[in-house]
DNA sequence: GCGACAG
DNA sequence: ATCTTGTCGC
């Protein structure tokens, strides 16, 4: 994608951000929020970690569902083109994530991404962005809110509270473990909020993060030693 | 004008 | 994301 390779402008150049904003607005029309039309047998989790300022390492972990047994682990590293700007995370991390995804021998039915889906100013969080590029069902699980308001869900595992933005519920604030800060679950693409929430909870074992993203996060750090 | 702001 | 020590609680 041409917009991924921009060495001709500073990372946070206002003109570039304006350009990316326009691109996201065009991408909005292609987002599909619906009940999943597949049997969830294989789920992937992905996450990235950094080495220094501009070297990124992304990992994809493939798991059986609902058993949550790991069946494949891949990773890829490269250089990032943009600095981090809230609302534009995907332009910084998606390129390398897509490279890592190609290394999977088996492809998942659904991808759980570390970050937001449609709970984004222009409905284009990194989970949605990846879903559109891969034409694959995706969902996002973020650790912090980006936009919207919510009330704290009850302290017990399984409690949910809606995240509202501009009069719409764009995510569910889900408690995945007793007395631990909740996560923000949102559909990315070819997925709906209720299904995403149910899947996130089914993948929550004894930790705050659902297994797919927890393991991706874990291995993204472990694989750094292999560089 | 003053905060808020995924990873 | 990343840099970092001790500390509270199950």
Automatic annotation (TrEMBL):
Q: Main role?
A: DNA repair enzyme involved in the repair of deaminated bases. Selectively cleaves double-stranded DNA at the second phosphodiester bond 3' to a deoxyinosine leaving behind the intact lesion on the nicked DNA.
The top EC class, named as a word, is hydrolase
EC number per UniProt: 3.1.21.7
Where is the site described as Interaction with target DNA found in this chain?
A: 84
Q: Which domain of life is it from?
A: Bacteria
Q: Where in the cell is it found?
A: Cytoplasm
Q: Which family does it belong to?
A: Belongs to the endonuclease V family.
Q: Which UniProt keywords apply?
A: Cytoplasm, DNA damage, DNA repair, Endonuclease, Hydrolase, Magnesium, Metal-binding, Nuclease
**Residues involved in Mg(2+) binding:** 47, 114
Organism annotation? Pontibacter locisalis
Q: Which PANTHER family match?
A: ENDONUCLEASE V
Molecular function GO labels? deoxyribonuclease V activity
Q: Where is the major localization of this protein? A: cytoplasm
User: Which protein is depicted?
Assistant: Endonuclease V
The protein's required cofactors: Mg(2+)
């Amino acid at each position: 994608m041409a917009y991924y390779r921009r060495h001709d402008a500073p990372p946070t150049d206002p003109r570039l951000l304006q350009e990316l904003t326009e691109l996201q607005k065009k991408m909005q029309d292609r987002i599909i929020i619906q009940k999943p039309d597949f049997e969830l047998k294989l789920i992937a989790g992905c996450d990235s970690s950094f080495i220094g300022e501009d070297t990124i390492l992304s990992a994809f972990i493939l798991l059986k569902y609902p058993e949550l047994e790991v069946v494949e682990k891949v990773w890829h590293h490269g250089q990032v083109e943009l600095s981090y700007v809230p609302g534009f995370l995907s332009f910084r991390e998606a390129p390398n994530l897509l490279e890592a995804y190609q290394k999977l021998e088996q492809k998942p039915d659904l991808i759980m991404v570390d970050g937001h889906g449609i709970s984004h100013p222009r409905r284009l969080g990194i989970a949605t962005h990846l879903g559109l590029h891969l034409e694959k069902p995706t969902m996002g699980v973020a650790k912090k809110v980006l936009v919207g308001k919510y009330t704290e869900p009850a302290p017990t595992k399984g409690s949910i509270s809606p995240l509202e933005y501009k009069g719409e519920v764009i995510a569910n604030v889900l408690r995945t473990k007793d007395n631990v800060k909740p996560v923000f679950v949102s559909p990315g693409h070819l997925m709906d909020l209720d299904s995403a929430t149910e899947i996130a909870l089914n993948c929550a074992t004894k930790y705050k993060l659902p297994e797919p993203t927890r393991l991706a996060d874990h291995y993204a750090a472990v694989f750094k030693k292999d560089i």
